[in-house]
Specification:
Length: about 90
């Protein structure tokens, strides 16, 4: 049962797709994405692919926990429930 709840809440492609559509509809989202990709490419050229990839992977791991926390709050889940489910980012 626990695995089913985790799967429904954190591994739901419908939620991911809906969030992506919402993000794309936000004013300025496309410009922010383009600016990010342009700057990311500049950084990647300066520091090299390997270091940039390590940095980016760690950033995604770190921000994944933040996103998970906001998502949990949005669902109204308390911290102890999230921990009991054993959800990991």
């Amino acid at each position: 049962m626990q695995d089913l709840i985790v799967e429904m809440l954190w591994h739901n492609t419908e939620i991911d797709e809906a969030a992506d559509r919402l993000r794309q509809a936000l004013p300025g989202a496309r410009e922010a994405e383009e600016a990010y990709h342009a700057l990311a490419e500049q950084v990647r050229q300066i520091v090299g692919y390997e270091l940039y990839d390590r940095y980016f992977s760690q950033l995604m791991r770190y921000t994944g926990h933040e996103v998970q926390a906001y998502y949990s709050l949005g669902l109204g889940l308390r911290q102890d429930i999230v921990q009991a489910l054993g959800v990991q980012g």
